[in-house]
Amino acid sequence: MAVDKKYETPMLDQLETGPWPSFVKEIKAAGEENPMANDLIGLLEQSYTERLGHWKHGGIVGVMGYGGGVIGRYSDLPEKYPAVSHFHTIRVNQPAGWYYTADVLHKLCDIWDKHGSGLTNMHGSTGDMVLLGCTTPDLEPVFSELTELGFDLGGSGSDVRTPSCCCGQSRCEWACYDTMGLTHFITQKFQDELHRPAFPYKMKFKMSGCPNDCVASIARSDISIIGTWRDEIQINQEEVRNYSKNGVNIVKEIAVLCPGKCIDWDGNEIKIDDSSCRHCMHCINVMPKGLAPGKDRGAVVLMGAKAPIVEGALLSSVIIPFMKIEEPYDDMEFWEVIEEMWDVWCDNGKARERIGEFIQRVGLGNFLDEVGLEPVAEMVAHPRDNPYIFYEDYLEEEDEDE
Amino acid sequence: MAAVEEVRDAMYKMVSGSAGQKKWKATDLHKACIELFGDDYNKRKEGKEAIKELVNSGKLVYTYFGGSFIEVPRVEGAAND
Ligand code: SF4
Ligand code: SF4
Asked: What is the CATH number of domain A10-149?
């Protein structure tokens, strides 16, 4: 159905002139056929001109039984732009590793053209497919057609957010565990927590198959599960020599940059002191045919990252230095640790306090005590530089001596 | 173990009885139920189940206002027709 109404958009037009792909161009193209996309152009132009947002927060819309997956938005100019009076966002749980068939994408787009603005964001920062612009009466029909196609809503609000992962073993030889398998398992295991918000604030899981951390889990998730190994880096000396012959300066480009200072190259053979290796992947990334992660593979679990919102950004901290990740996943003790941590956070966390902020507030030592985890050296980011730190046991021993 | 029906009714009373005055999070409901039922209450079992039943039946709904809450259904002030 062609849309006749047209808006003058001098401000938005400027965003089409640069060298980059333009969202304005895409919204305009969608607006040729879809009245919601067309009215969105008019509303955006007015916002740009006035330097004023025209969206109101909707806190109640959703689908029956779910506490997440729909982010409510209303326009405060419903008479002027009636097609975007309601403009809710739907988050759809993406397949692990973001694999789709073209056929499924066509069907998704058909659903969205029928019920919404036709505009999508592939993908949102949590990883979901994001369907932009839906009316309240259309929410249930969209949901029902999505579930018929095999999709479910993702998370939003104070719940487990849609878990996401790198493509892992499906395409990458460095994956130290099956990220997609684990992500699918976590999504299923925590269905209740994903759809029924029960936490002080959001809780994100992200899985990376190796320390390259292609989904940036260390910076963007409350629980980061990053593949690693605990034996020696695998070396193919012949291939290492080939890199050298073909122009790689192994000393300058690899040994000097190794953060563990544990690489030695004598011009013919590379030696790695694995006990000092930081598992940063640098040497492996530069010589992928010559070096590879070890054979005893698993993952390190880190906790507490978040982007800056109220407080500054946080990177996550090691909680479990190494664990094997093998099927059946349900037998892993890890889930009990997770539930313990959630209990401590839920009982003591403030509203809108991420678990990383909570750990910072109460102190990692107290948090570990409550959860029942032993502190280990890998949890320490750097050696202490303050001599006035005393440990409880040490004090008790001293007291007894006195 | 507290019965799910008992927990469900108690939670509904708490939320509906203070509608417009207090916003309940799931964690608040669990804390209140621990006070009420003591050691008989398991938030991971009957606690979760009771909230699920209340929300699935439409007696209560989840809302989001800077964090997720559980409320009696209502029309929001910001909602357009
Ligand atoms: S994180 Fe590692 S395993 Fe995953 S895709 Fe990136 S390089 Fe490969
Ligand atoms: S992985 Fe990193 S720390 Fe380990 S040997 Fe290679 S460059 Fe050094």
From this structure: 3.30.70.2500
Q: Chain A residue closest to B54 (CA)?
A: A65
Distance CA A178, CA A122 (A): 23
Matching residue, tokens 């020599």: A241
CA distances from A76 to A1, A43, A82, A105 (A): 26, 10, 10, 33
Query: Looking at the domain A234-292, which fold is it?
Result: Alpha-Beta Plaits (3.30.70)
Positions in chain A whose pLDDT score sits under 70:
1, 309-310, 384, 387, 389-402
Q: Is A351 on the interface with B (CB under 8 A)?
A: yes
pLDDT tens-digit map of A357-396: 999 999 998 999 999 999 888 888 777 677 676 666 655 5
Q: Which residues pair with A207 in a beta bridge?
A: A165, A225
Structure tokens at A63: 């689908």
Nearest beta carbon to residue A59 from set B27, B58, B65: B65
Residue B52 has its nearest CB partner, among A59, A156, A196, at: A196
Strand-pairing partners, residue A89, are: A71, A132
Return the domain boundaries, chain A: 10-149, 164-228+299-379, 234-292
The model's pTM is 0.92
